Amino acid sequence: MADAEKDDENLAQEVDGLRRKLEDERCRLNDGNLSHNVDPIPTLNARVRRVLKGHQGKVLSLAWATDKRHIVSSSQEFVISMPTTWVMACAYSPSGNYVACGGLDNKCTVYPLTPEEDPVLKKKLVATHMSYLACCQFNISDHQLLTGSGDSTCVLWDIESAQIIQSFHGHSGDVLSISLSPSESGRVFVS
């Protein structure tokens, strides 16, 4: 009986030692918490500026133009006659001369907004994914477009050639959102 109690005591000590080791390893690998180094975010005093009417269904995406006066939005209701299924993603180019959009058709198309060009005739298919297009954003110029998809990839595209510049893998699920860093280089994004 004494041997069994001694074995239980030794096992309990071993378990405690393993718990401490595990906790130490977790602390070593843990990402830092920077909240104590950052000033508190000021309270947002938002108010309704203007209600834009027109969509009857869900608005799935929207983007401001750089002129801060125009917005492009996408929805599931076919308000803009396009030969595609739901448009889930949209983006304005930095110049404001182009809009990119795509969705359940797995494609991203760029449309010119200049008055002398018919957008439907001058549209350019830029990107094709293996699954739906969830998000898109122009890089720092009108020449590159970053897309995210249900195929778990992000891809940087050359708009003129419609060729892949770089493909980013590593997600274990759908890429639902991307955001480019506002830096001048345009070389950093999160997804």
UniProtKB/TrEMBL annotation:
UniProt keyword terms in alphabetical order: Coiled coil, Repeat, WD repeat
UniProt-listed Pfam families: WD40_Gbeta
Top-rank taxon, per record: Eukaryota
BP terms from Gene Ontology: signal transduction
Start and stop residues of the WD repeats: 126-167
Gene3D superfamilies attached to this UniProt entry: YVTN repeat-like/Quinoprotein amine dehydrogenase
UniProt xrefs under InterPro entries: G-protein_beta_1-5, WD40/YVTN_repeat-like_dom_sf, WD40_repeat_CS, WD40_repeat_dom_sf, WD40_rpt
Coiled coil: 1-28
Designated name of the protein: Guanine nucleotide binding protein (G protein) beta 5
Natural source organism: Clonorchis sinensis
